[in-house]
Description:
By secondary structure, this protein is an alpha/beta fold. The protein has a single domain (6-365), classed as Aldolase class I (TIM Barrel, Alpha-Beta Barrel), CATH 3.20.20. 30% of the residues lie in helices and 16% in strands. It is built from eleven helices and 14 strands. Strands 3-4-5-10-11-12-13-14 form an eight-stranded parallel β-barrel. Residues 362-366 have low confidence and may be disordered.
Amino acid sequence: MLFEPYQLDDILLQNRIVMAPLTRGRAANSQHKANELIADYYRQRATAGLIITEGSQISPMGVGYSNTPGIYSQEQIAGWRLTTDAVHAAGGKIFIQLWHVGRMSHPDFLNGELPLAPSAINPDVIVRTPSGKKTSVTPREMTIADIQQVITDFAQAATNAMEAGFDGVEIHSSNGYLLHQFFAPDTNKRTDQYGGNITNRARLLFEVLDAMKEKIPVNRIGVRLNPSAHQVQGLKIEQETLPTFDYIINRLNDYDLAYLHLSEPYTDVSEVPFAEPRIAQRYRPVYKGNLMINRGFTSETANRILEDGLADLVAFGVPFIANPDLVYRMQHQLPLAAADPATYYTTGESGFTDYPVFHPATVNHQ
């Protein structure tokens, strides 16, 4: 099933393999725009049924990593157009991940300003800043005006993405970034309409969705969630964590989304109170739309989860770094190259666009 075409609403995917978002930090320019190098990187991987780009910040306040591309200026729209044109010319489909890191940023990225967050709670993590690794700071609690600005920025970013030629967008509401920070009781201590109970803590996501669907078709919007993220970006699982995601995922059925992208646990949570170690099994019966699952799959385990009816699409992250022809290698049961972690977040071609591919002639000779 992994290699069969899949109809993602009105988009025909050539297979069920998705390239997951991977921060790579190659937008090394003053305008924080995607460039020819980034376009070549995604073009090389266009045999995936769907590519989801690295997180692209929706505003200058949304950035939290060096050399990540934005999607809030005309220059950035033009920069991303290089990528969408290249991927489409190669026969691929591509969504952009829209990103605001919230408290995971640092004043070094923000002209000295404090990062924004639902509440002024320091994540107590190490942040990679342009001048090296530093300890995170206590963020500034967002005002209602700040929240309204974020909603506007997400909606505008969606508009910009379509202008840049993307087939759709993914809202990054996962992995301890801004929207996830609103969901979590330990990072959201607000007492207004955005905090205090499950409905209020989830409110921002749905207000973002409602604003975005006024700008682009809702079936071109995906949502990413990580319900069992534990000890990730300063988050931990609490008693209300899973009930919060149960509420969110059930309510997402009211939206005709392109897909829901769920991550299996990043760490072993089998002994963690209130955690769910089997995300696909828990949420496939709940969510009625296209379900994408992610985290540590092989072609065999991916096929199994598809055949068991627990997902419609499977996303692969790290394997795509060193294997631009991952689909071909999986189809022909060829060995996978190992990625070099030392080049994950550097600049230039090394460890980015210089990984070799298998060619049919070589395979036939073997």
